[in-house]
Amino acid sequence: MANEHYTPTERRPIAARRWPIWQRAAVSLARQGVSPNAISLAGMACGVAAGGALAATAAWPRWAPLFWLAAAVLIQLRLLANLLDGMVAIESGRASPVGELYNEVPDRVSDTATIVGAGCAAGGDVLLGCLAALAAMFTAYVRTTGKAAGARHEYCGPMAKQQRMALLTGTAVAAALLPAAWQPVWGMAGSRGLVAAVLLVITAGSLLTAVRRLVRIAATLRGSGR
Questions:
Q1: pLDDT tens per residue, the chain (226 residues)?
Q2: 139 closest CA partner among 104, 93, 180
Q3: How many domains does the chain have?
């Protein structure tokens, strides 16, 4: 149930919220009575499906280009849902404290499913996928812990959600379109490829992101006397 006296916490700064096309889409969805929580769950479904599509590139290599492209589209649909759910909640006056849960929990499920799926993909590495997923979740943990301690949400990068998903989207498109001979291979017997390298970048970038957020949160708390 919406709480008309509830004010959502600060939202992730996304320039696309100002685009007329998404503003009109949010208004249209709100008028049709679409639940913002349902949009959040739809986004989670897209994130999980993206992970499945990525893993399928190794299981069914004959159809790998289609799975790569499907994963890229599903990742972007997940991000679109993440964009619209909050906009619809505010437009329809249905923002509520429960909506915060729908905003955070599906994101963590989506991130984990997509990144672990990348670890299972052709040219990926399961261990690196798990490490990258843990590192990504750690960035969110730092952000929400800082908010609970009294600081603002820290969304800084260099490997926040949008950057992680943009990198995976670009990787999926490249894997679908580039000839196999152009794609890098490394590790024992060339068992790892482009995806594994990208997972290393996500892991390192996420850890750097977590450190940057911790530093900013600590500075905010010190400044407020907490």
A1: 344 434 455 667 777 788 889 899 999 999 998 999 999 999 999 999 999 999 999 999 999 999 999 999 999 999 999 999 888 888 877 777 777 788 889 999 999 999 999 999 999 999 999 999 999 999 999 999 999 999 998 999 999 999 999 999 999 999 999 887 666 676 655 568 899 999 999 999 999 999 999 999 999 999 875 5
A2: 104
A3: 1
Looking up residue 165, the CATH number of its domain turns out to be 1.20.120.1760
Q: Which two tokens stand for residue 169?
A: 């989207």
Domain hosting residue 129, numbered range:
16-223
Residue pair 118/170 in contact (Cβ under 8 Å)? The answer is: no
Q: Is residue 11 part of a domain?
A: no
58 assigned to some structural domain: yes
Cβ–Cβ < 8 Å for 112, 55: no
